[in-house]
Amino acid sequence: MAKNTKKPWQGRFSKKTHNFVEFFTSSIHFDKRLYLYDIEGSKAHSMMLNKIGILSDKELKKILTALKKVEKKIESGKMVWKNSLEDIHMHIENELIELIGDTAKKIHTGRSRNDQVATDMKLYVRDETTAVYENIITLQKTLIQLAEKYHKSIVPGFTHMQIAQPITFGFILMAWFFMLERDKSRFLDSYIRLNSSPLGAAALSGTSYKIDRKYTAKLLQFDNVTDNALDSVSDRDFIIEFISNSSLLMSHLSRFSEEIIVWCSTMYNFVSLDDKICTGSSIMPQKKNPDVLELIRGKTGTVYGQLVNILTIMKAQSFAYNRDNQEDKPALFNCADTIDMCLQAMNLCLENLKLNEDVTKAAAEKGFSTATDYADYLVKKGVPFRDAHEIVGKTVGYAINKKLNLDQLTLKEFQNISPLTDTDVFKFLNVEGSVSNKMSIGGASFNEVMKQIKKAKKIISTYEKI
Predict the structure, then answer these.
(1) What are the boundaries of each domain within the chain?
(2) Given Cys at both, which of 180, 228, 301, 420 links 381, Cβ 3.0 to 4.6 Å?
(3) 94, 95, 180, 210, 286 from 8: Cα distances, Å
(4) Which CATH code fits 364-461?
């Protein structure tokens, strides 16, 4: 059979497309990764055309068999990609025509590349959303394991990068868990809006054929069909939402990375990372660098950039389809690849992290971290909080002059500033007592952290796959 070299739109044109224009307008070098989704969409559309009588049973069988051959050819690496065929849709259609001739030409009945690409992209984003969702859960499981291990390990809590109050490492890890839970819920929420089929919207106004859109939606495991053909082919909200959700997720991963980078520095030495996830310096032999975490922090900007990219692409587009939308794919693919790698990288780092408990406890004891506990103590004795705040400030100033911590002052020294202070104050002036006293819901006490861990375990055990 002769090679088919015709473009599907060339009937209107009298001149051959300029080579540079073919190169400039081609998207096959990046959209070829959509081949499986394009084939699945074509299978569903062909089965629907058979159902409504446009394709015979024999023709459907030929098409499905040919599509399977095309899939195998692509997966084996034997497909020759050509700029002249523009995109993955034309490559697959061209292969089908070469395999089964005119029968293949019927497959485009009742659809356009406009609804075809929208369908492919939704199928792709649906799979990527599921992958991100599952990767977040894996990371959350690692956080739970670490939180259980370190739920009584004292570390300093910071505000303004200054030691504020003692907390536990398990408490910090649970903070990370619940941040990721919000990320997970955002992806799940957007999945609900994403999962409606645009197939059958055709170019922008639907089709005169009596197609069964609900049938193809069911075959492709969409929950329903889109309501308006014009909106169906124009909509890229699902891509914007995916990249937006990814941007917020990356901001969280970047913040986690920043904390660990600081903590594993020589100046802090709060945590140690296993050698197998660190790198060294080409000139300084003593160096052990947390490059994986630094790259997560850096790649956050890459994802942010893709959010600006897709928003800019869409901001002034007239309805329905415009070629600008070809550029939505590099933005989406880059984002999806980046967050997939970063979630795996963060999980690997946490699996190979060790808390230096003696160092963190000693650090938590510095900086008068239990001063607020003393103020709370005075309030319970009937002192208005603002007055208690002033009393404690004076006491801290006195301790600084004496070069002592609060728990090193004598009862008489306390009483010289506030006679209401008694011996029971010393229960709250050590870091263990301070942490144990944070018993409000969501607090840092050992019991409250265990409640958070228990809730986290329940969340993970009852999550529904999407």
Answers:
(1) 17-109, 114-139+167-359, 364-461
(2) 420
(3) 9, 13, 46, 23, 63
(4) 1.10.40.30
Instruction: List helix spans (H) across 150-236.
Output: 169-194, 213-219, 229-234
Indicate the pTM of the whole model. Answer: 0.91
Per the annotation, the verdict on 281 as an active-site residue is yes
| Non-local CB neighbours of 75 within 8 Å, separated by 6+ positions | none
Residue 137 zone, left/alpha/beta (φ > 0; ψ -120 to 50; rest)? alpha
70-80 pLDDT per residue, tens? 999 999 999 99
Are 250 and 299 spatial neighbours (Cβ–Cβ below 8 Å)? yes
* pLDDT, tens digit (0-9, with 9 covering 90-100), for 291-347: 999 999 999 999 999 999 999 999 999 998 888 899 999 999 999 999 999 999 999
The identity of residue 3, as a single letter, is: K
Residue from 56, 205, 265, 281 carrying the catalytic annotation: 281
**Helix or strand holding residue 20 (H, E):** helix 19-25
160 assigned to active site? yes
Q: Which of 76, 160, 208, 440 is catalytic?
A: 160
Q: Which CATH architecture has domain 114-139+167-359?
A: Up-down Bundle (1.20)
CATH class, 17-109 region: mainly alpha
pLDDT at residue 463, rounded to an integer: 80
Burial of 390 (0-12, 13-18, 19+ CB in 10 A): middle
CA–CA distance, 442 with 440 (Å, rounded to integer): 6
Angstrom distance (rounded) from CA 183 to CA 194: 16
